[in-house]
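ENTRY TYPE: paired fold submission
RECORD: A
CONTENT: sequence, then structure tokens
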Amino acid sequence: MIRVLIADDEPMIRAGLRAVLTTDSDIDVVAEAGDGHDAVELARRHRPAVAVLDIRMPGMNGIEAMAELRRTVPATRVIILTTFGEDDYILQALGGGAAGFLIKSGEPEELIAGLRAVADGGAYLSPKVAARVVAHLAATGAGTLAARRSSARARVDALTAREREVLALLGSGLSNGQIARRLHVVEGTVKAHVSSILARLGVGNRAAAAVVAYEAGIAVPRPAQQ
């Protein structure tokens, strides 16, 4: 059973998230919060596997709540809920170690697929979020879109063939265990490849590596039924 905490300052959004998540018999919504402070307190109490946090909340926003969760409840992985026009917040959350990013207006199936991926140790970026991140980086002086894609391809080409395979699957939202099964290797081997990939790409977490995979064009959205 995947224990989940939902945090959003809009009651209707929380109700909608709960309604979607409870259609999956493997997901248990153990707590709801209307702000970041309550989210942190409830996470300490209930120890959920995944916290789904609105990026903007009163008092303590999703990024601040995520930082506190990483400090006090490190086993809880974080999915950030966002809307269009919040690109700067997304970049902050990406740098802060969020494991997943979903658009509030996305399909219900994507919410469940993303939550399952993150709970299983993977990273999940909504394709729309990934596209926004890549475009925003290009628009804010981090290089033109063509230049960033060229740079990403060069960084990926410097990986071994096996590391490129692992990165493509990681970028599609698969966990180490799922990648191991797909490539017919032991999970420890995949973990070693992922550590090497992060170091060689110069990124701090799986979600950031997924952005590079999207920029390089080797990652594809994970089908919802997985």
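RECORD: B
CONTENT: sequence, then structure tokens
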Amino acid sequence: MEKLINDFSFGLFIWQTIIFVGLVLLLKKFAWKPILDAVNEREEGIKNALLSADNARKEMQNLQSDNQRILQEARMERDALLKDAREMKEKMVADAKTEAQAQGLIMIEQAKAAIESEKNAAMAELRAQVSNLSIEIAEKLLKDELSNKEAQVKLVEKMLGDAKLN
């Protein structure tokens, strides 16, 4: 250290100080301002990027909440549509059952009426056949009985006796 103190030159010190001050002034004028401006711009850019990121995050949260709300509304609307569709289906099935029952009752009534008319027609036809057979049998019996005179007289007397009683 003594050697450094012994080798000290006052003139060299002043020249170095002048050069240092000049260098600082030159740097201040030409380098520091652009460097500080660049650092400030970079700082502003980082601040703006952070603000943009924060705004984007907030916007994403808003979009997510909107998406959740829209999704919830869509689910509710879907559920309402499904409920309406189920109700409509049940109503249509009930209406179809009611109509089928009504048609069935109408068909049963028509069948009963058809059976009754067929029955009446069959009964009328049976009566006609029975009456025709009765008349044929009566004719044959009368022919046999009325073939002799004595049987004719008995039959007339019997009919007269029956007529008085009625």
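NOTES ON RECORD B: The chain has one domain: 11-132. The chain has a mean pLDDT of 86.
STATUS: closed
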